[in-house]
Amino acid sequence: MNLPNERAVSQDSVSLWVNGGALPSTSPRSGVVTNPAAGKVIRHVPFANAQDIDFAVKAASAALPAWRAAPPLRRARVMQRFLALMQAKQKELAQLVSEEHGKTLPDALGSVQRGIEVIEFACGIPHLLKGEYTENAGSGVDCHTLRQPVGVCAGITPFNFPAMVPLWMFPVAIACGNTFILKPSEKVPSTSMRMAELFTEAGLPDGVFNVVHGDREAVDAILDHPGIHAVSFVGSTPIAKYIYETCARNGKRVQALGGAKNHAVVLPDADLEFTADALIGAAYGSAGERCMAISAVVAVGAIGDPLVRMLADKAKKIKVGPGDAEGVEMGPLVSLAHRDKVAGYIDTGVAEGAKLVLDGRNKKIAGYENGFFLGTTLFDQVKPGMKIYQDEIFGPVLIVLRADTLDAAIDLVNANPYGNGTAIFTNSGGAARRFAEEIQVGMVGVNVPIPVPMSFYSFGGWKASLFGDLNVHGTEGVKFYTRTKVVTTRWPHDETPAAGFIMPTLG
Description:
Blueprint: E1 16-18, E2 21-23, E3 30-35, E4 40-46, H1 50-69, H2 72-88, H3 90-101, H4 105-122, H5 125-128, E5 133-138, E6 141-149, E7 152-156, H6 164-175, E8 179-183, H7 190-201, E9 209-211, H8 216-224, E10 230-234, H9 237-249, E11 253-257, E12 262-266, H10 272-284, E13 294-300, H11 304-315, H12 336-352, E14 355-358, E15 377-380, H13 387-390, E16 397-403, H14 406-415, E17 418-419, E18 421-425, H15 429-438, E19 443-446, E20 462-463, E21 466-467, H16 474-480, E22 482-490
Parallel strand pairs: 7-8, 7-10, 8-9, 10-11, 12-13, 12-18, 13-16, 15-16, 18-19
Antiparallel strand pairs: 1-2, 3-4, 5-6, 6-22, 11-21, 14-15, 17-20
């Protein structure tokens, strides 16, 4: 273990975590981590270079043979100890999330819990790695499959879920017998470092889990390193496409989850109060910085006007402030640059002719005047050709489009290039069933605004929201982090025919 007495995160700096301990970077480059509520720098983070990445890969490669050879039950027991530590430290981790991302403490606690559930899933790895067996597939011939680890894996994760999204990846990968290098967002590095400390405390061998930080230089070093065999990514669609193409060109297995424009279709028979409450939480929770946030509502028929009125009334009552303050329902955006970018989209929507029902610009919080705050924003009468519809805004901006029929609403959603998540609000079972069947989106909610699957199902979208064939966590995660090997067996005996020169049929 490197520097065992040094904490991975101090008051003013963050280190790398390589080979079981905190490690300084060899790079002269670094960035800053801010508290977005206060708008001030709270620590510095190193930006790893190719040399740092190579050192992490060498540590992961050295640890791989022994960890791969460990019985799945032994790996599961390490996971169980890690699970217990994560549960014990859940509030501490949530406070780190809230401090660096800005989301409210209850929201942060919920996101950590959803990540912990993936560790619970990974604890069942002995069962999940069982293969198939066929006795007497041919005369005297048996056939079985093995699921074996891919090798050294890497994860590149976004700023919006500092605990949950990394936990979608590395517990499953490591339980399957791989070693792992995590590059979290440089905006929110501390949660990953704390999880690395806890994993080591749980008995994970040195080098099995490593954490590096940085920007594109670190990412490219991961994508280009021949010692990394699989890469998982969650982020924007342009970067997801770049990750996918680069990994494919370099012969790596890759899953790259991209952006979203998640629609909620509201039919005239929907319960208005229930629907409005659900949409408010889905649109403005975590300041809209969720890949599963509902950012577009398609109001069908006569429900449009009353729905918009109720959304506006509820949205203006949302309490905005620092994430750790009592009663706050929505915190700041993650950075000044992102706050200004989202505010720019509001300017664009007004210029495009959308009806600005509620304007969140110029939101000021007493005592936090330097914080990166925006208020809740609501647009009505948005058209598909507008930029505020076409782009993923990733902020507290909800737009409402109108459709005359369910057919028109389905066509609108299916025409969108994204296909991450969607929802329908209705009291009609027939309409809901039809919507779920015809909609070209990977995750669908029926009267559920944010249909994030549980850990034993996979998470991932369609179209421009996913590049790759397999989603994260669940059984698809196990498939991604393992390779299938088929073994065909015959034990010779006196009656075994001699080898021939024809294609064997095993008959």
